Amino acid sequence: MELLTIGAFARAAGLSPKALRLYASLGLLAPVRVDPDSGYRFYDPAQLERARLVAWLRRFGMPLARIQVVCDLWERSQCVAADEIAAYWAEVETDLANRRRLATFLVDQLSRRETDMSETSRLRIRYAVATDKGQLRDRNADSAYAGPRLLAVADGVGAGPAGERASAAVVESLKPLDSGVPSGDLLNALEHAVRRANDTLRDVAASDPALGEVGTTLTALLWSDSSLGLVHVGDSRAYLLRDQEVFQITHDHTYVRSLVDAGRITAEEAESHPQRALLLRALDGRSEPQPDLSLWDSQVGDRHLLCSDGLSAVVSEAAIRDAMILLSEPDQVVRRLIDLAFQAGAPDNVSCVVADVVES
Ligand code: MG
């Protein structure tokens, strides 16, 4: 078969000769022959398919290192390569959504500064909190907190007292945020607080080696004027009720959730999966925390629920939704949800925090 010069190959593939030289240096697409005297590069026409795939992936901005992964998979199986491209695109969309929220927030902040400053401080929250060890556990490893600006739920993991020590320490180290932070600083403050909490966990584990490994989930909301910061690690949850609709605003960091996201099992199958409690992320005092952080615009009439999996694992979304919509006071909702968990056997510790956003 006649080999193609780099120019002819570049034209046929829709890539520039300069790009081809770069891809050759990275081992992504190497010429089959380089003339030892002239240095001219030659490509096999059979390489065109791989080159066109590279060109296509570059067109929507995939980084070269990821293209290498896709191309290697594609050599073995087109379906597996397709899965990898879909996974990459899901990451792009998540990242884009987060960046959009950050940009929108900044635009809002800057616009407000020039319009009505008083408008931003007319909100406050009314809240209720409850935590219970449930019917089967000897200890309560959950910790829950609600204050004028901060709500938090943490579900400790570990044997014996380790879980409750962990969740209590993390919630305790977040409490200083309740005295208030500027809205432009919400995410930084939450991120720092989580690092501080993780350091505290390390100290707890070090101070009492008998505890063994400690760890905890953490889901917290922090208000500043009408801005709301959310920090989340693990499988405790945050829900928002707005305009009669309930949205889960956290994403479970669990093995089964990752299987559902990858399309390997259905949400129904996840509910009875033997490894449904397996966490992919938690605060453990050993590894670097990887919290999800996001900003929300808070509105009068919003209702928030934070809960541990002792509620969400045994009480249906529909029942949670009904309680959030139908009951007027936060403490009624909290009591109703704990009752529902008990009606379902309360096999785990259960915690609920409910807050209504009202005019101050
Ligand atoms: Mg739990």
Summarize the structure.
43% of the residues lie in helices and 21% in strands. With 360 residues, the chain is of the alpha+beta class.
What are its keywords?
single chain, 360 residues, alpha+beta, Phosphatase 2c, domain 1, 2 domains, six-stranded antiparallel β-sheet, 12 helices, 14 strands, 43% helix, binds magnesium ion
What is the chain-wise order of helices and strands? EHHEEHHHEEEHHEEEEEHHEEHHHE
Strand proportion: 15-25%
Helices, by number, come to 12
Major sheet details: 6 strands, antiparallel
Count every beta strand, where a strand is a DSSP E run of 2 or more residues: 14
> Fraction of residues in helices?
40-55%
CATH architecture name of the largest domain = 4-Layer Sandwich
- Gross morphology: elongated
How many structurally independent domains? 2
Kindly describe this structure.
With 360 residues, this protein is of the alpha+beta class. The chain is built from twelve helices and 14 strands. The chain folds into two domains: 4-91, Orthogonal Bundle (Multidrug-efflux Transporter Regulator, Chain: A, Domain 2), CATH 1.10.1660.10; 116-359, Phosphatase 2c, domain 1 (4-Layer Sandwich). Helix content is 43%, strand content 21%. Strands 5, 6, 7, 8, 9 and 12 form a six-stranded antiparallel β-sheet that branches. A hairpin with a 3-residue loop joins strand 5 (142-146) and strand 6. Helix 4 runs antiparallel to helix 5 (78-114), helix 6 (162-174) packs antiparallel against helix 7 (186-207) and helix 11 (317-326) runs antiparallel to helix 12 (330-343). The protein is elongated. The model has no long low-confidence stretch (mean pLDDT 91). Bound molecules: magnesium ion. Residues 155, 308-310, 348-349 line the site of magnesium ion.
